[in-house]
Amino acid sequence: MKTVLIIDDEEKLRSLLARIISLEGFDVIQAADLKSAIKKLDHTDIDAILCDVKLPDGNGVEFVSLVRQKYPGLEISLLTAYGNIPDGVQAIKNGAFDYITKGDDNNKIIPLVYRMLEKSELSRRVSQLEKQLGNKHSFDTILGKSKLIQQAIDLAKKVAPTDTTVLLTGETGTGKEVFAQAIHQASQRRNQNFVVINCSAFAKELLESEMFGHRAGAFTGALKDTKGLFEEAHRGTIFLDEIGEMSLDLQAKLLRVIENGEFIKVGDNKTIKIDVRVIAATHRDLMNEVQTGHFRQDLFYRLSVFQIKLPALRERIVDIEVLAKHFVFLFAAKTNKKIKALSPEFTEALRLYNFPGNIRELKNIIERSVILNETDELTVDTLPQEVLNSMPKSSSGNILSAFDLASAEKIHIQKVLNYTNGNKTEAARLLNIALTTLYRKLDEFKIG
Q: 225: phi > 0 → left, psi -120 to 50 → alpha, else beta; which?
């Protein structure tokens, strides 16, 4: 039930309004002055306020500012016995919903209360949606406790409040867009647009038009002036995914935007100024691309002011089970299945797999397994063949259990190789075995 607070020092009028409003099914709380009204606001969930302008301990017009500042989603309307234009104008400027005259406008009270409550409820829903959106894209949604992912998160959190350009590197599927969203959400630009451009999804000419817009007649089919995504991102953040695929001449135009905050639409000669934060991402080695002449050196240095490398999933094996359980929860809910656990063999198979597609591939594998599964536990028979091939097998060809010594040995060797970034000589040293023995084990366990 909605609650309305009436603030008026005239007891008879206050009681009359309370009776009128309560007959509509609302709870009504009364206060004779601002001091008692503030106490009630602090201890009761109020949905709308009707307040007299002249009160024993203050002015309703000024009280509006206090309410709007402390309770931004709460609507307040002022009632006055002697309406005057300056007070009315100031009340609206301060954030009052309405300003009406007592007595003459009693028939307007109920419609007014309903409109106030409607707007208050809308504000509350918007606030909840904004909070949900913030939570959805916050750093808290990035799962994993491994050292490498935590280092990446810490770096992203430090750069987020600034306007510094960020370059996210790492293999395909490691979550670069998720990081970009989290950086934007933790920045001062969080209430502005977050715009995404996949630079590999367009031909060169189309990408330029997509980024900067075009004038009517700039090319065949350009029937009207069109905004580019940089304009859409004004005062917000633009995420340039797969920037390593961008052509050299377009790289020069992007450099101008980053350095001067200006660009020219396709087919135009007028410079447009914008304020945009740039976050770029690539799976390529941009320094190598610079050396081979495929990427501008000056743009690389502008983009890599703050570089964050996202680890491959095989480098953070400890996080695989957490991520898998998260995806199981999502897809089980979508398919209305009650899956309570992952079998030890299922989890082990995931840990042993190389995941060339990283988190994106893990997500797809889990979705497939959930669809195929017919019990309350995910088992290895729901996994695709490429994952099953990564599991050690006995001499008879059967998959070894999660507790088998050979299986544990393979997991350990894989972990050490991940730690050494594939350096077999260093891995053999850490394992305290000969390099030839390591190669034999790699061949036996089919570790690439």
A: beta
